[in-house]
Design a protein that fits this description.
The chain is α/β, with parallel strands linked by helices and 702 residues long. Among the domains are: 158 residues, 3-Layer(aba) Sandwich (Peroxisomal Thiolase, Chain A, domain 1), CATH 3.40.47.10; 107 residues, 2-Layer Sandwich (GMP Synthetase, Chain A, domain 3). It has 22 helices and 32 strands. The strands form seven sheets. Strands 6, 13, 14, 15, 16, 19, 20, 21, 22, 23, 25, 26 and 27 form a 13-stranded mixed sheet that branches.
């Protein structure tokens, strides 16, 4: 949307804000009125807004009316009577309604208390009202009162045509569509009138003769999916049929998922880095109807008993006739639509089942919220077979955003893609951010990036700080909306089972809330910190994370025993140890299996220890802490990955011991510089600490 007019309060020459009848004691409402009227006069003079123009009001404030709230608190505390006007002015809609009545504004009124960047959330809400056809113009008002009760505000009148490929009202219609879910987003987006010639997905490999890195339009994507659905149907694939998909290319994974979902079948997406013997056992346990594998993975399966036939390759599936595709299966909310798998830290990964409704619950919520900055041109650096990529593809389609999907997520590959494709948002796992920390980012053109979005394991402070130092984002200043240096980083905690990150916290270059803080829960989820019996623990105490969310997986495929082992008193137990503070923020300390009970009420945490070591050692790009409880006590090893040019011969033991703290530091056995290749990891890059503990026990025994 274009900026039609802008005003601030105060501006040079302003004195005391004019009084507004009906609003007392506080400068909050009078400032809103003053800045709004100044902005509207700069557009329309002293005349009312023309009757044919529907003007909405979006009032955004993180602080709210501090002065009124403090007055009410003090009056009640002193036993006094609160004046009746405070019951009126304490509702922000009242001052917005006052402005609407005086100026004849006929659009909706929305008041937001942002959890992230106020301008981003306000402009996103304005765009939503405009693009959904609810308003021709939007008066965006951003106001804050500081603790000393000084008040500043900015008003921006937005209007005109959007420069994005949006269909008016699309996001709102999708959010309200009861048939929409994770299995039919592509079909429903088109059914709701999205432009078939608008952008959809871009892949880093060729698709049926379509060049690599050339965008597929929405119509082309639908045609390529229909071709695969027709071919798979000819092979006998029907609804409810589990089909394993094992390939490397992101295009093979995403298009196979969309095609199988179109048939009502159940794609079982497998990470291409699985060892062949693990992959074969995983396929056997699925008890499906067949396997779709690319040439390289077909060769790896040779000689293994799978129990099901090889149907062909994803490339062969692309040769189907789109016109011969059967009608799109009509999903029920409980229908299974995809099986993904866990990292496999202890062997054969667990098969995670999601339904049409569960894997869409978070997306439906987000479609009803303002669209965040940094989500219109997305680089997807998440593993293609992971639940997170299925989620993000659906979100991109629903938002009518552009998305470029990478088949390989190494640091150098991601940096190259950012420079070539110039996304405004990059989505990935913490392992990718750790890899980027090994590079001198000043040597790369990352100016397009406004947002880094992390899911899976939460990220470490030094890795985040490197990223928020580059790029830019919009913010609100005294002089209005401004583009400022430094990007945003949204951190959290998620997993295949959770169906979406359950927490969120936004970091900027000027923020300082780290220490493994994962922020607050999303509105669609409930969380708890539990003891071993499933009972809530007091605020501040460490316990097991329990989740109750409509986005949760439906269970582990063909493994009811494991499914119910992770359920307790209505909660899904994630296996994480966390604590909450008095302000409702949560902190992730470790995976329970990686922590060690040190006796006397003490527990040692590997992930928290890694955070402390990285913060204390700037010449270390990543580290792994292994804590082992043995018969003769607890022993800790710290493995350091050093920055380029760092002195490998330097003894960092004292620095590391001090960072660990007195209790864990007393158990420190050795500090060892290592290469990244020395650390055993899973197919998604998670460190296999169980293997490192076994290595220690083997060394101790010998």
């Amino acid at each position: 949307m274009r900026e039609l007019a802008r005003a601030g309060w105060p501006e040079p020459g302003d004195g005391v804000v004019p009084v507004v009848p009906g609003f007392v004691h506080s400068a909050f409402a009078p400032t809103v009125v003053a800045v709004a009227e100044r902005c509207l006069r700069r557009r329309y003079g002293t005349s009312p807004v023309p009757a044919e123009v529907r003007t909405a009001i979006v009032l955004v404030s993180a602080s709210g009316d501090r002065a009124s709230a403090e007055h009410v608190r003090a009056t009640v505390e002193a036993g006094g009577r609160v004046g009746p006007l405070f019951f009126y002015q304490s509702v922000p809609n009242s001052v917005a309604g006052h402005i609407a009545a005086r100026w004849g504004l006929r659009g909706p009124v929305v008041c937001l208390s942002p959890t992230g960047d106020p301008h981003a959330e306000g402009t996103a809400e304005a765009a939503l009202l405009h693009d959904d056809g609810d308003a021709d113009e939007v008066l965006l008002i951003l106001i804050e009162q500081t603790p000393d009760l000084s008040t500043e505000a900015v008003a921006v009148l937005l209007g005109g045509r959007s420069t994005t490929m949006r269909t008016p009202g699309l996001r709102g219609r999708l959010a309200a569509d009861t048939e929409l879910g994770a299995g039919n987003m592509l079909a429903r987006v088109l059914a709701h009138g999205a432009d078939p010639d608008g952008p959809a997905l871009t892949f880093d490999t060729a698709v049926d003769g379509h060049p690599a890195q050339a965008p597929l339009t929405l119509g082309q994507l639908d045609e390529r999916v229909a071709a695969r659905a027709a071919w798979l149907h000819e092979q006998g694939v029907r609804r409810r049929d589990p089909v394993a998909v094992w390939a490397t290319a992101a295009a093979d994974m995403v298009l196979s998922f969309l095609a199988l979902a179109r048939l009502g079948a159940i794609p079982a997406l497998m990470n291409g880095k699985l060892r062949p013997e693990i992959a074969a056992e995983y396929i056997r346990r699925l008890r499906g109807v067949g396997v779709l594998a690319d040439d390289a993975h077909t060769a790896l399966l040779a000689g293994h008993e799978l129990g099901v036939p090889l149907l062909g390759t994803p490339a062969q599936a692309g040769t189907g006739d789109p016109a011969a595709a059967p009608p799109h299966y009509r999903h029920h909310p409980d229908d299974p639509i995809v099986i993904t798998h866990t990292s496999g830290t202890t062997g054969v990964p667990k098969a995670v089942l999601h339904s049409h409704a569960s894997l869409f619950a978070a997306t439906r919520h987000l479609l009803s919220m303002p669209q965040a900055q940094g989500t219109t041109r997305i680089l997807n650096a998440l593993p293609a077979p992971h639940t997170a990529t299925v989620l993000m593809v659906n979100q991109a389609l629903g938002n009518r955003a552009e998305m470029f999907l990478l088949s390989e997520q190494g640091g150098e590959r991601v940096l190259d893609a950012i420079q070539r494709w110039r996304p405004d948002g990059v989505f990935g796992f913490s392992v990718t951010w750790a890899e980027l920390a090994r590079f001198d980012l000043s040597g790369y053109d990352l100016d397009s990036v406004r947002l880094w979005f992390n899911t899976g394991d939460c990220s470490h402070e030094p890795h985040i700080r490197r990223l928020v130092a580059v790029g830019w984002h919009d913010t609100v200043t005294r002089d209005g909306v401004a583009r400022v240096p430094g990007s945003l980083f949204i951190d959290g905690l998620g997993s295949s089972e959770m169906g979406h990150s359950m927490f969120h916290i936004t970091h900027r270059a000027d923020t300082d809330r780290y220490g493994r803080c994962i922020g607050r829960p999303y509105q669609f989820t409930k969380v708890a910190v539990l003891d071993a019996d499933g009972e809530p623990v007091p605020v501040g105490e460490v316990g097991f994370l329990g989740i109750d969310s409509p986005s949760l997986f439906r269970g582990y495929w063909n493994d009811s025993a494991t499914t119910y082992r992770f359920r307790q008193r209505g909660w899904y137990l994630t296996g994480d140890l966390v604590r909450a503070d008095a302000e409702g923020r949560y902190y992730h300390l470790d995976r329970a299996v990686d922590s060690v009970d040190a006796g006397n009420g003490r527990r040692f945490f590997t992930a928290l220890s890694e955070e402390r070591v990285l913060a204390a050692c700037p010449d270390v790009t990543d580290c792994t802490v292994v804590i082992v409880g043995a018969a003769d006590g607890v022993v800790t090893d710290v493995l350091l990955e050093l920055a380029a040019g760092a002195d490998e011969a330097e003894d960092r033991t004292d620095r590391v011991r001090a960072a660990l703290g007195a209790d864990v530091g007393a158990t420190l056995r050795r500090v060892v510089p290592v290469r990244s290749d020395d650390i055993p990891v899973t197919v998604t890059g998670k460190v296999r600490k169980v293997a490192l503990r076994e290595r220690y026990l083997t060394e101790a025994a010998s």
